[in-house]
Every structure is written in C-alpha cells, then in structure tokens.
Amino acid sequence: MTISRMDDMSDWICYRDRICYPAETFLLRFPVENKERLISAIISNAFLNEKIPFEQLKTIHEEHSLATLGDFVLDYAIIANFPVNETVTPQKINDFREQYGNNTTLHRYARDCLHLQEYILWGSDQRMKKIWNQESTDMLADRFEMLIGALYLEKGLNGVLEFLQTHQFFKKIDAL
To answer: What residue stretches are annotated with the RNase III domain (predicted)?
Structure first.
C-alpha cells in the first residue's frame, strides 16, 4: 500500500469514526465494533446520492434487513415486558405488542424522545424539508428498528433490553 493510499485509509477511518461518534456517545452510549453496520442503520440513500467525501461510503447502503431483524427483536422485547398472569390471552399480548411496536408510535418515540433524526445522515433536501416531521411519514420507525437490529448484532438481546430500559422506552411511549 502506498503512503497516499494509507493516508486515504486513515482519513476514511477518521471520517467513519466521526460519523459514528454522536450515535455511539449520546444514543447507544458505547463504541460499536462494527461501525459500517451502524452507518448502514443511520445512512440515507439520498445522502449517498450527493457528493460524498469517501468512496467507501458508497459500499455502505441502507441495510433494510436490519429493520426486519430489529422488528423481530423489538417484538420479543415488548412481549417479554408484558405482565403475565392467569387472565392473559394471546389477544391481550398482541394488543400490547401493537401498542408499543406500531410504526406510528415508534416514529413518534424515535423523533420526540430519542431525537433519532439528529443522528441520521440525511440528504440535504431531506434535512432542509425535515421530512421526519411530515404527517404521512414513519421513516424514523424503520430507522429505529434498523438501530435495534444493529444493536442486537453488536450486543445481543441483553444489550437491546438495556438500551430500551436506559431510554425508558415503555414509560416514554406511555407518556406520548
């Protein structure tokens, strides 16, 4: 590897770390091992369509399978929080899951409680229009699920449960 190539790689690593720093420090509250996975959870395709400073970013796309994984993990975490007693029915459990796990609720929680929009790498037009505030959108719900998926792969189920507890997921949704 030539010196300039090494400098490029070093610059990329510094840039990558700078992208991840706010989410790691203020949202997750720990440094992640797989920074590219975290970026895939917080990067917007609109951001990638703009002039970007490093070609390495073009290899990191929105990872929608993280949202699928995060959705399943979040459903489990919600169900695990349901108080079980002799009057519990499958319908009550499902209603509880839908109360906390529907996209509208997750979007509002992500926007109003976590301020997730501040950690997303938006395209300039998206940021200017503040698309996360549009009535018809629940895009932060998907981002939240992607973040949960990335967190699960990084720290496992206990890491997700700790994150939800730290950010008072149930209490804050109840207050929305």
So the answer is: 19-156
CA distances from residue 172 to 108, 110, 125 in whole angstroms, order as listed: 10, 10, 30
Average pLDDT over residues 26-44: 95
Q: Specify the CATH number for the domain of residue 171.
A: 1.10.1520.10
Predicted TM-score (pTM) of this structure = 0.91
Please enumerate in sequence order all residues whose Cβ is within 8 A of that of 137, keeping only pairs 6 or more positions apart, or say none: 107, 131
Q: How far apart are CA 14 and CA 59, in angstroms?
A: 17
DSSP 16-77: HHHHHHHIIIIII-S--S-HHHHHHHHB-HHHHTS--S-GGGGG----HHHHHHHHHHHHHH
Does residue 105 contact residue 13 with C-beta atoms inside 8 Å?
A: no
pLDDT in tens, 92-132: 999 999 999 999 999 999 999 999 999 999 999 999 999 99
4 pLDDT higher than 70? no
Instruction: Give the pair of three-digit tokens for residue 78.
Output: 């919600």
Query: And the tokens for 19?
Result: 């992208």
